[in-house]
Amino acid sequence: MGLFSRNKAKSSTVAKDRLKLVLIYDRAGTSSNNAMIEMMKRDILKVIQEYIEIDEEEFELDIKNSNIGGEGTTSEIVANIPIRRVKKMARNKY
Amino acid sequence: MQNVIVITSGKGGVGKTTTSANIGVGLVREGKKVALVDTDIGLRNLDVVLGLENRIVYDLVDVVEGTCRLKQALIKDKRYDGLYLLPAAQTRDKMAVSPEQMKSLIEELSKEFDYIIIDCPAGIEQGFQNAIAGAKSAIVVTVPEVSSVRDADRIIGLLSAGEIDDVKLLVNRMRPDLAKKGDMLSIDDVIEILGVDLIGVIPEDEMIFRASNLGEPAVGDEKSKAGAAYRATVKRILGEDIPIGVYEEKDSFFKKIKKLFGN
Question: What domains can you pick out in chain B, each with its CATH number?
Answer without folding.
Answer: 4-260 (3.40.50.300)
